[in-house]
Structure formats: C-alpha cells, structure tokens
Amino acid sequence: MPKYLLILLLLIPLSLRAQTTETQYLSGTDKDHTVKWKFFCTAGRNSGKWTTIGVPSNWELQGFGKYNYGHDKDTARGKEKGLYKYSFKVPANWQGKTINIVFEGAMTDTEVKINGQSAGAMHQGSYYRFKYDISKLLKYGKTNLLEATVAKHSANESVNGAERRGDFWIFGGIFRPVYLEALPPQHIERITLDAKADGSFKSDVYLGDGTSADEVVGQLYTLDGQKAGQEFKGAVTGGNATVHLETKLPSPRLWTSETPNLYRVVMTLRQGGKAVHTVNKKFGFRTVELREREGFYVNGTKIKFKGVCRHSFWPSSGRTMSKALSIEDVNLMKDMNMNAVRMSHYPPDEHFLEVCDSLGLFVLDEVAGWHAAYDTQVGTKLTEEMVKRDQTHPSIVVWVNGNEGGHNFDLDPVLDRMDMQKRPVVHAWQVFRGTDTQHYINYDYGNGTHLQGHNIVFPTEFLHGLYDGGHGAGLQDYWEQMWREPLSAGGFLWDFADAAVVRTDKGGILDVDGDHAPDGILGPYHEKEGSYYTIKEVWSPVFFERREITPAFDGTFRVQNRYHYLNLNQCRFTWKLAQLPSPGSKAAPVTKTGTVTAPSIAPTEFGPLKLSLPADWQQQDVLYITAIDPAGREIYTWSWPIAHPAQVAQRLVSKQGGSAATVSESDSLYTASANGITLAFSRKTGLLRQVRNAKGIIPLSHGPVLAEGETAFEGLSQRQEGQNVVIDAKFGKASRYQSLQWTVYPSGWVKMTAKYFPKDYDFQLAGLSFNYPEKEVKGIQWRGDGPYRVWKDRLKGTNLGVWSKDYNNTSTGEPDGTKSPVYPEFKGYYSNFYWLTLQTTGQPLTILCDQEDVYLRLFTPRFGAKPYNTAPPFPSGNLSFMHGIPPIGTKSQKPENMGPMGRANMYYDYSKDPSYAKEMTLYFDFSGKQAQAPTVGQR
C-alpha cells in the first residue's frame, strides 16, 4: 500500500471506516496481477499432479488441460476439472461481521469449501458473480483453507448448451477475481436505482437479514464531491428487508453516449442516528424508451446504434481481462465513432461496464445462450445474478435474453421483475416485443419484413466479418439505409477482434480455429485492419456531402450533423494543404494549415462549413480536413485532390532527350530503343516481352492483358513520329480492345495508351495487367489512396497521400505460423492511383497514370482455407491498372446481397462507339533510378 494512502486511512476514524464494506483479495485482480494457488488438473496437459497456477486465469493458457473450440465434439468432455487450494488469514476483528467469499467468474461448475466444509450449493454458469456467506466457517485471526473444484463442462446440459457449445473458444478455470467482503452485522446488501432524465431518482435498498436499523439516508454527489440536491430518507419498517427512497434533482446533467455525465449516490444505513453501513454507486440520469412502431429513444431523442459485438478475450489470457484492456477496447470503439457495444454472448467484467459508463457507450447486456438456452431453474438464478451486479450502470440500455435461438421465455419476466428501470428486453435474432433483431439481413430483405415491416429493426449482428470481408465492406450501403429509415435503430457488427488464442501446446502459435474465429475488425492484438478506418469514416458524426474541388471552389462544404445530442459547434475543425513529394523524394509534404470556425448545426441538420484558404490554394496537391470531438478525439480526417493525375504526370514525365528513339524488327519482335532503354514487343501476341537498360533487365513483361474479354489480336505496326517511336496494335471485330499504342520518347520514358470495352454490361473486372516476379519485390512507394487496400464495396477509410509499405504476405485475420499478421496488407487493390515505384532486389520501376478513377492492383493476396464469400477475383498477371474491381462479401452473405456497392460493375455500351471506350494511359520510367522512401506520415 502506498505510504500516503496508509496515512490517509489512519486519519479516518475507526467508526467511520467500519461503516464501509472491507475487501480482501484472495486472487490477483486481473490478467497482469495474479496470485499463485495450488492446482491439480484432472485431464489433459500437466494433469495428475499438484502444482501451482496464477489466479485469475484460464488454465489452458497456463499449460494445463486441452484447448477446445465450442464446436468441438470432444469425447473427453466432463473429465477435465481443476482443483484449487489456497491458504489465507482474515483479521481477528472481522469476527461478528458478515463475511462473503465472492467469485466474479469461474468456468463452469464450481464447488467451494472453507476449512473442509461446503460453502454452499455448487454454482453452475461461467460468467456471473456468485458469493457464499462463510462467516461461520472461518477461523478468525488464523489460517484458513479455501478449496475449489471447477469443472470445465457442466453437469447441467442446459448450461453446456447455452455456454459451452457456442461458436467461440471454450476455456476452464477461475478466470475472474476472488475476494472476501466483510460487512457490518447491520448492513446494506445491494441497491437498485432508476434516475430519469427529468431528474427524478428512485432507489430500492436491500438490507441484510435481521437488520434492526431504523432508516436509510441518501445523498447525491457530483463526481468531484459536491453535493447535488438535498438529503433524502426512507424508514426501515416492520422487519421489511427493502427500503424505497425517492428524490428529485432539478436540471441534472444527463448521461448519453455523447455526454457521459455521471453522479454518485451514497446510501447510509443508520440506527438511532448513528451510521452503521455506507455504500455508494455511480449512476447517470437518463431515460430509455422503446416506442412501438416508432423507435428507440434515450432522453426523448431517437437513436441509432452504431455498434459492435465484443467477446471478453485476449490472446495470451483467454477470457481473463483487465481494466486497462477494457479502457483500450472502449477507446478503440469510440475512435471508430461507435456509440454502442453488445456483450456477446455473456455479461462482461464489471470494469468494462464502468468504462462504458465513463467514456460513453450504449450497452446491450446479455444472458448467455447460443442456439440453446439455460433451463428455467439455473437460468433464473444466473439472470438474477447478472441484474443484481449490473442494474445500476447507465450505459446498459437493453437486456438481451440469449442469442440465436438460445432464448428461454421464462427468463423475460425475471428481467422485468429485477430491473427497476424496466429497460427493453430483446431476443437476439428474433422478432420480440416490437423489435426485429434478425441477423445477417440482406440489404433489401423483402416484403413484410425488415424495413418493409412494422417492427423496430436493429440486427444484433450484421456484416459477419471473416478475414477481410464484411465490417467495412457493405457498411456504407447499410448505414445510409439505416440512417434514413425511421424504423431502423441501427445495428451491431460481428465482431470486434480476431479471437486468435496463444497455443501453449503448439509452441505459442496463434490459432483462430480455421474459419471460426478470424471475424474481427481488429487483429488478435488489436492490429487495425482496413475496415477499422472504413467504419471510422462511415460512422463519422460529421458527414460531408460529396463535392469536387474546382477552380471555382470558395472553401465551402455542406455538412450534416449526425450526432444525436451535440451541436457541431462543440467540435473543432482544422484544415491542411499539402504539396506531396515526387517519387524517391525524402522530403516530407510541404504544408499550410489553419483552423475553421465550427458551424452551429443542430443534430441531423445540414449547414455550411467554411474554410478561409490562402490565395495560392490551387497550387497545392491535396486538401485535408480534420474534425475533433469535444473530448479531443479525432473524428476523422478527410482528403480532397486538388491536383489530378494528368497534372502530376505532366510535371513528372520528361519526354525530351538527346537522340531520337529508334526501332528495329525481326520475324518475332519489334525492338524500340531510347536513351539506353530497350523494349521488345512480340509481333505474335502484341505483348511487351522484355525491358532492358544499361544495368540489366527490368522484369516487367506479358502485358498489357485485358482483365476480362476477347483480345482478337491481329498484328503490330511501327512508325517513326518525329523523334518518337510509335507501335500500334491491330485487333479484330470480336476484340474488346479498340486500340493499343506504345510511344517511346527520346528521354527513355514510355507511354502506353489503351482503349477497350469491358467484357459485358455487368462485369467483375476491367483493366490491364502485366507480370512482375513477386519474389523480387521488397516494397512500394506510391501516390494515391492509402495506406489500406480497398474493395468495390469498401472504398472509404483511406486518404490521398504518398505512402510507403514493405512487402508482406499477410492474409487478413489468419496468423502465419507463430507470427502475428502484419498490417496494412501489401497485396490487393488500391484506389485513386497516381504513380508507384516498386522497390525490388534489382532495379526500381516507376509507373505513372494520367487519368482519374484508376485502381492499382498489387499481386494476389492469400485467402483463408475456407474463405466463403471473402475471396474476390483477381485478374491474370500480378501488376494491374483497373477501371473496375470486385466487391467482397461476408462469411454469410454474397456481396451482391449487401447493397448496390456489392453488385457487379455496370457499363452500358449499345453503340460500340469508340468515344465510349474505357481509356488507360500509363507512363513508364525504366531508367532504374533508385527511388527512396519519402519521409511521410502513415496512420
């Protein structure tokens, strides 16, 4: 104990200290602070012998037992148990008090003995706080022995069905803290409360057995210790074990996800005017309503959930968490502009709820159940335990009774009875009490259901992430529909982070159990995948209406306030103009910055955001705007191009040189040369065969090849055009090519221009490809949108800039052996391409594009063993320049069912008029000049 805390404790009178509940931890407090207990595992690794284990923990992560995923058909189920022993002392002056031993969570059936005597009936169920009164079993001032037997699987089959056969990792052990609480003989057991937005406050105070005290006195405080309102009282009458109290606070500061204002209530039990026990709780004033056929309201404002489902999980500790991780998780959610989280599929650690209270997230708290439900007897007990622990948290706005068929309807009245606030109760993936929480709904779900129906719709799971699919992919379509539909209350993504567990039985590799657990927006150690930034932009409460930056731009944007409660004038805005570096430059971008007067725009309303830009803004390359929320958190940074690819290419491409380009021919090749560069073109295929300079071969070849469609190549011709060499291709009538031309300039720069029609009216791919040996690539520097790759239905979440990236072979969500995935991934499609420099084991290669809306394709990613709908097509070759790229689906949905952005590309060509052909112009620098990565910021 720190010295200053000890001094403070000694200064407090003993009589006052005796009024509060005293706590003595027997275990550690979290995954990073454990206490060694004696341990015996009955089956699996390191079984059959007494040793020690850190508590709290899941024993698999400590080297014991067997790893199980919930879908396992393990014949050894029921044989794996953990026997725990721990010796402890309690103060002699605790005698006469009520002493409870409290388990915050143990998996799954737990039997407890103190000094060889049973503490009470076996507890069944993993995720719930339970306690025993052990006052009569203790030796005060002496050593006591705690013995606990924990069975990984329950003797109650309904518990196994609800908890142990789910689509998630199954662990064993005492995974949350264990402690003693000492209460005075006359004491308060617990309180419930209801604090409404109008300032009314009600509380039921539950007293211990045999209480002879005469009153309970309440006082509200602000968190800085100032009294809020007057003292209020309730009498203890006729042996009644419950005291009801009420008061009202004029004009309280309200709790919402955007304004998480908290108060504290102190309840004091008095006997003859003397305080005998005091408890306190944090809470928030807020009113929750579910208005039938209308919407979900908090404090009279209709809200839409921007939520995610979250497991309590960390790779190296399983379900044993810490408050530091809770803070990190909530901050990551808030950074993605989320306002809600669903506790899937069980109640979390209480410190997670405390963080949601203080930082501001709406919470759906859930009774466990996964395709199967608890029976009524055990389910009632566990539901009561959940509500007793969690009822006072203002962040909890909905109770969830089971998941995907794991609903026991007998538990709904338990939730109604136990919750003084009468929060709404829903069944995840069911139409229930006016809500439709169907999972993985298609964008247009059909007549009479979903948004065509009459219920309030908020899928408690949608866009089931797998590898790089789902989450951000499809979200823009879904969210715009949800935002505008009056009966939509938003929804919850599945899920927060990849559940990759450290396999202590396999040398410490990360294991996601095939395609079962790589479902996260984040990697296992919270690495940010591409969807993280897409979600951040799509769910931004500041919405920019689309506009182009033209010479007529006056600095004005039209923006919408998509907060529920805050005016945009409570946010801050800054702008930055940047001149981006050229290929190989070490220089950082040259920038000019400024601030923006935040406009007064009420929630859901549109208004102007006006920038005062310098007179030379048109000489810059890109404009950035950053929005910052009232808490100082970045909402998002957006970018708009000022200089377009044609302007940049004109700056960078040098066409003039000393001597004219030349061309020679043989039976099979045309060979063009200029300034030490030699290019060979096949007269049989029309494709680039080889590039060479004075240093050797640059291995770009076999291109350009159409991504889709018939080529019908007929031949090449060549001509001298001034100092340039021009090589033209000729195609037959069946060809999708209209023209293909190479121009070799005296400088050695080479221009390629192609015109073509996509294969069909709707198509997956459109563009041109080359070959480049992947094994020779070390990295890339490029100008365009980055640093993350994109899909057709996941274009948001990037910024225009100059980016650098080392080569990696990351398959999103799939750990590679013992290594964690490296993000951002290297391979894939990149939008808004200007130029690239490939950094290789040989000579660098620089390619520029002078047209807008071109995608760069870098090689083909590895996809998971069972990718379902998350392995989009890639063209032949491995270095491509595309006009059309594919969308990506989710584990449970094809992309075409996820909204307009998920459908095939469409290009209507009825006339075959060449003026409607797609055109691609690329410039190649084959000089082999060594490009160096610029010093530019990445996320």
TrEMBL record:
Residues spanning the signal sequence: 1-18
Organism expressing this protein natively: Hymenobacter crusticola
Cellular component terms per the entry's GO annotation: beta-galactosidase complex
Keyword terms of this UniProt record: Calcium, Glycosidase, Hydrolase, Signal, Transferase
Domain Glycosyl hydrolases family 2 sugar binding positions: 51-184
Name of the protein: beta-galactosidase
EC class name: hydrolase
Subunit description: Monomer.
Coiled coil: none
Matches recorded under PANTHER family: BETA-GALACTOSIDASE (PTHR46323)
